[in-house]
Here is the input.
Amino acid sequence: MSDSTVYYMDAHSESTETALAAKMITVFDAAGLDEMIKPNDIVAIKVHCGEWNNSAYLRPLYARQLADRIKELGGRPFVCDTTTSSYSPWGSRTSEIDILLTAERNGYSSATLGCPFICADGFIGTSDFVVDIPEGYLLKEAYVAQAIAAADALIALTHFKGHSMGVIGGALKNLGIGAQSKRGKFNVHMGGHPTYGLGAAGVFHPENFKGKANTPDWEILEDCCPFNLYHINENDELEWEGDKCANCLGCFGVMGPRGLMDIPPVQFDAVDAAIADACLGVEKAVGRDKVGYINMALDVSPRCDCANHADVPIVPHLGVFASKDAVAIDMACVDKAREAEGIKGSAAEMMEAHHAGDKKFEAAAATFHGQSEVTSINTGHEIGLGSREYELIECEPDSPERFRFPYDTRPSRQRFGERFEKFQVFPYDKHDGKGFNRLDVVDLEKVKHHYEDSPEITEVSESVHADGDD
Ligand code: SF4
Here is the structure.
């Protein structure tokens, strides 16, 4: 079992060394993740690059800062994500070409990162490395994205938030779903599973289909499934070949709301357990002592970054965490979220789960009542992936010198003295040496006052006058 210490800094920031990007490096080093990187190591930084029009995903700045630190340590970083399941008919990251376009739009490219951004599981998502996991609670094998399995070290750089299926979207999910190939995702999603798969546990209601003539957008009923499992036959009846269902999730948002399919909640519980198994598979593929975790608990949206939108965060920024233990780091984030007061106007308040102590993800993120925000955590604890008992160590800020603009560390006079003389950025020769055409005095109190506090308009002082020059 890994070291279950979690290193933490809160989200408060007021200086160079307390910038969140600086804190991320401070906890990275404190957790000893720097010691995982050896000269010439190929280091995968696994991020979620965000769906099209999601706006809560992690800013690329953090991946850049981490890539620079890894280069400083002698490693060769790349930043990566994987193709998604075709979980929506209109997904933006389902193939390599789509994920690269979406990632670029969201700011993830070699230009911004200073290292390559790659799709880790190939063009369509079949590039993977199969790992046996006899310790698994539910899964006995995992399909790890090839580029991640091939790396010498892996840092899961995770945006911690909610998730409609996983309930929490943390470190466990970043690897347990995000580091699996596309077929690895079908494995975790229970595709073809005899008990928990949609084909086995879903309840199809073809009687609720009222015929093509009464369903103007009937084509989407067939087009939502990339495996071509829904058909409207010559008798104008909807048919489903459920026994071939891969659990891509593509029909959930189409069939569910129309009453054509009851999605089985037990499938979601099974997936949440399988996420921890698959995360263990990733650690085994890379090396159990070569995987580190950073959780950035900022913009804690109720939905995952794979949603094409982002809701009001349910809690304020929680802080920056680092650990060698995926279970401990997610548990620490859940605990912090539970301690926090929820945000007004968020889904947590709408669900009346915004008080300190409330289980906010279960109320505001889960799809079904009864899903648990600790299923993946408990499973990871059970199988020896990590421990839900952890020690939280609060880190002190590092020195500001370390986090200043690195391309020129000289102070201003040395950097700009000669240039400012040469190009005269301040026009000392104008307006009697004052430089610019401005009034000498104005009534600043007048424009500071809130109108409702002081409705009388104050006349501008007669002493205020134009400078009179050009
Ligand atoms: S029937 Fe299965 S394979 Fe087809 S869209 Fe639905 S979940 Fe995907």
